[in-house]
Amino acid sequence: MTEERVWELLQEVKDPEIPVISLVEMGMVNKVQVQDGIVQIEVLPTFVGCPALEIMKRNIAEIVGVAEGVQEVRVQFVFEPAWTSDRISDVGREKLKTFGIAPPPELLQIEESFDVPCPFCGSSNTRLDNLFGPAACRSILYCDSCKNPFEAMKPV
Amino acid sequence: MNTDQKALQELLFQLADDDFILAYRGSEWLGLAPHIEEDVAFSSMSQDTMGHAVMFYEMLESLGVGSADDLAQLRKPEDFRNAVLVERVNGTGHYIEQPNYDWAYAVARTYLYELFKWVRLQSLMNSSFEPLVQISRKMMSELRYHLMHWQTWTKHLANGGEDARNRLQAAIVQVCADIDGLFSLGPNAEAIVGAGLIADEATLKQLWLEKATEALSKNGLSLPDTFPTPSHDGRAGEHTEALTDALNTLSSVYRLDPSAAW
Known about the structure:
heterodimer, A: 3-stranded mixed sheet, 19% helix, B: two-stranded antiparallel ribbon, 12 helices, 2 strands, globular
């Protein structure tokens, strides 16, 4: 088993709450080390209290753990470096849009609130309805152009 | 156990228990908040806060103090180090029966607490205990959304007519009756500060005063001139019946079988 192969396998582990995007595309995988069949993976939590963390851990074990040449998978959640929404890859950002979730704006633009274009029609004529949405990492917005409510990843 | 280890554990219990109990009080609002959007928002924030408590309990676990779940659910009330402010009930009645909860108190308490948490995390970002530095930075990025949210409510209520405004101002006074307990670092304060874990009480209080005064004055609200000494010193393990009741409720399932796998 090689580190490159583990990264490929991790590409198959999806975010439990947004199944179109992988943990790698979310920028959540910090480091992979392989030694004598023991795979160590450092994962950066998006939110401290995210209830999906344990599910991710299990899913990583299920996919990486059964690969040939793997004896054991050790998943560790770390906070150094801190995950920020700027870590989401360009591919990941496009995939979020196909799922109806607007990708987060860049971190430096945020003051009291934030603006994002509608993931459906691209209009900037949107407004924030609720900073808090169905998951800690998302907010609820409304598009005044195409009249669709939508979610956006919070910039953190 | 040497003095520094004892100091670190005491501080971690303060951090964990404050967040844990306040998040529990927040969770008691589920289904009762003024509108459904607020139910979503308040629950989300309580989940964040509960998650922060988990991190602190897990730090204690890694120091060999006990399992995080046991620390949260099996300790006696007198072993809790939270400030009394966070254990106060949400209002009269109980969640299941006649919950006459006070929304103005919820806004005032949570907002003033989270402003203090901002000050506390800022200080912890310079802590001598590296795990606290890392986790504080992460928690900060979540906390800013909580602050935006409570600032919005403060604005709504302050500008929402005389009744809303008076109730909020009265709630601020009520919260301030317990607020001094929040700044306290407890009987081991000297060792905690001496170990470089966090700034001293007077500094934390001063920074909070500046921040809270500014946040409230934007909406024509103010803090009382002086704060009384709270009735119980939570940092020394002195608590009200409200904490005993809360712990009995929140741990009732866990206590049925602490060895069960979740």
